[in-house]
Amino acid sequence: MNPRKNSEYMSPLPPTQNNPAVLIDSLRVNRGATKVFTDLNLVIPRGNITGVLGPSGSGKTTLLRAIVGVQRIQGGTVSVLGQPAGNAALRHRIGYATQEASVYPDLTVIQNLHYFAHILNVSRTDVDRVIEAVDLQGQIHQGVSSLSGGQRSRVSLAVAMLGNPDLLVLDEPTVGLDPVLRADLWNLFRELASNGTTLIISSHVMDEAMRCDHLLLLRNGCLVAQTTPAGLLTETEQDNPEDAFLALIRREER
Asked: 2: number of CA atoms within 13 Å, CB side?
């Protein structure tokens, strides 16, 4: 599939190229013998929620790692907030939560947050803020190893939010959460975006596409579409994002 082909039939993003949150040009990434991206080009605007969606193995996590600057690349460029990805100047401007909980299991929730707050040189008031934001007030003195998978993910999210970063990169933050908590987190994401934070959120749950401002739909390392939720449904003449994504795949395979 040609990753540029989708521009022929999908709604364009707003003209943010002059000051995007992320600008990727001709990105090439190999993971071992596997070519994940061969020529990936995309733009992510600031101050919005961009959803990175696609099935397992489509390249979502590799893309997020490239944006954060922890992924070795074979070619192309990744610019984040006006700096090369991985630049030291970005360390306090980006919050990153991986799929696996990136906290210490032998510490309590509050001990983890105080530790990372010390590293980031942020106040304990900020620790209180993020604990409340992810609804972990009742677990602050509980060891992380005893938490559920969803609770551990929320601790990682709280760590990523410390210091009010300009960009939050979240790899499947709602996996394993019940519908009520998922809805609460998406309300939090919307509040953060409304206050100027740029969020990049990956998911394989297509109904979460409708909660985003912009969408990047990936399949087999190709950008199938760069669009908006409304544009996705309109251009494919479908009623829900899952059917719309399938319609795009069938169109590419013709």
From this structure: 7
